[in-house]
Design goal:
183 residues; alpha+beta; Alpha-Beta Plaits; SH3 type barrels; six-stranded antiparallel β-sheet; five-stranded antiparallel β-sheet; 3 helices
């Protein structure tokens, strides 16, 4: 287990925006619980990647104190930049199970940018596994204006679900229904 300061960066290289790598993204499907090891290995070799990480808080059973851990948002997957010069390092990794090609690079990068925006805003969210079809919406007001996703209604508010198809998972964030329009 990594200490908080020892965790790999979510994006490598840090200064390079995700959209700068459009056309080169692939998804690495990894062996169980190897996301951070793989990310650290790729950074050492100069391979660009995006590994969305979030802080999970749980209560310890023995003393009731809060335990903080940094976890991958999409366990078992990491988006990597495949280039001819770095391809050999990717395939030699003992952590790699499979490479999944990204067919629609623009949609994939847009999904990643939306996930990155939610994570950077430090709002609470819930993880969702398999998403069933629902209404497509676009946020028109507030800090998430422009984000598109599916919505499920919960009580008096709504939860906007942002799915990353390549990972087969999604996150959701609470949002005021008045800020949404149907697309």
């Amino acid at each position: 287990m990594y200490r908080v300061k020892e965790n790999p960066l979510s994006r490598f290289p840090v200064s390079k925006p995700l959209e700068d790598d459009t056309g080169n993204w692939v998804v690495a499907h990894l062996r169980s619980r190897r996301e951070k090891l793989f990310a650290s290995e790729m950074a050492r070799e100069g391979v660009g990647y995006y590994l969305p990480l979030f802080e999970k808080r749980t209560n310890r059973r023995d003393n009731g104190k809060i335990r903080k851990s940094i976890n991958p948002l999409f366990p078992g997957y990491i988006a990597i930049v495949r280039e001819k010069s770095t391809e050999q390092f990717i395939y030699k990794s003992p952590h790699l199970a499979n490479i999944i090609p990204v067919k629609n690079q623009n949609n994939f990068v847009n999904d990643l940018l939306q996930i990155q925006r939610i994570l950077d805003s430090n709002v609470s969210f819930e993880l969702h596994g398999n998403i069933s079809p629902g209404d497509k919406v676009k946020v028109v007001l507030g800090p998430f204006a422009g984000i598109e996703g599916q919505v499920t209604k919960i009580g008096k508010s709504a939860r906007l679900i942002l799915a990353v198809e390549m990972f087969g998972q999604a996150i959701s964030v609470a949002i005021n229904t008045n800020d949404l329009i149907k697309v």
